[in-house]
Every structure is written in structure tokens, then in C-alpha cells.
């Protein structure tokens, strides 16, 4: 019996350390956002990257056009690609999500850039972020801040 209880306590500690207890989903009519996260930043950093999954739960197309947060001057949607062995990041004017589709913003692909940080992001804090959709719709969420060296989101995404 001691082994079983000890194993349960170990699993609970590992889950808590990995951030799963902080994983959150957000919903509004026609949209669901899952597992929004970012990494802690070193002092003096001026940018951060945010990751999440957006699902269009409605019957009409959805277009993410940007965001806002009190911790940065602006939020932009970016794409990352490799061209001739060189990593290129470019702003994207909007992200279209078809009805029923899910788009994952993740490392190595589409992501959100928090540009002009006005403070350091620290591990385990929650950073407010408002997603802005075409037509003026907005959805307030929070980004869970993972460790600086953490290459995984709360659900194990690289």
C-alpha cells in the first residue's frame, strides 16, 4: 500500500511541476483556446513568444488578427520557416480558422510575438492576453509562464 500511495504523490508532484495543473482552456461563442503558454524571459528581454491552440467551434470562418497585453507594446502573429538553412520569422496579417478546424500556434511554426516587453516574465506567473478577432470580437485569456529552458508546454508540446 505504501508503494501505491508514494507513486500517487510522485505523479501529483510531477504533474504540478510540469504545469499541467495550470493548463487552462478558454471559450466564447464560436471559439475555444487551449493551453496558452509562454516562456520566462531574462531581464532586459524585449520580446517573448506565446503558443496556444485555437478551435473554431462555430459555423462561420474565424480570423485571428492580433492581440494585446499589458506586458508588451504590441502582439503580432508570426510565421517561422527555414529558407536555405536560415530561420525566417515574418508577421502574418491574420490567421483564418475554418469552422470545426483547430490551428496550433507552436514552436517552429505559427506563433504570437509579444513585442516591446515592459517587464520580465517569471516562471509560474499568469500573463493576461486578449486575442482580437476580425469584426471586433475579443477573448481574454492568460498565458502560463513556463521556465526559461522549458521546451514544453503544459501538455507536453515542444
Summary keywords:
158 residues, mainly beta, Immunoglobulin-like, 11-stranded mixed β-sheet, 1 helix, 51% strand, disordered N terminus, disordered C terminus
- The CATH topology is Immunoglobulin-like
Structural class label: mainly beta
User: Which CATH architecture is right?
Assistant: Sandwich
Helix share, percent: 10-25%
CATH-defined superfamily? PCu(A)C copper chaperone
List low-confidence stretches: 1-21, 152-158
Radius of gyration: 17 Å
Strand content: over 45%
Biggest sheet architecture: 11 strands, mixed
Mean pLDDT: 85
Q: Would you kindly provide a written description of the structure presented here, covering whatever features stand out?
A:
- The protein is mostly beta strands.
- The protein has one domain (24-146): PCu(A)C copper chaperone (Immunoglobulin-like).
- It has one helix at residues 2-18; strands at residues 25-28, 31-39, 47-56, 62-68, 72-83, 86-92, 95-97, 102-105, 111-117, 126-133, 138-146.
- Strands 1, 2, 3, 4, 5, 6, 7, 8, 9, 10 and 11 form an eleven-stranded mixed beta sheet that branches.
- The protein is globular, with a radius of gyration of 17 Å.
- 25% of the residues are buried.
Secondary-structure topology with pairs:
Elements: H1 2-18, E1 25-28, E2 31-39, E3 47-56, E4 62-68, E5 72-83, E6 86-92, E7 95-97, E8 102-105, E9 111-117, E10 126-133, E11 138-146
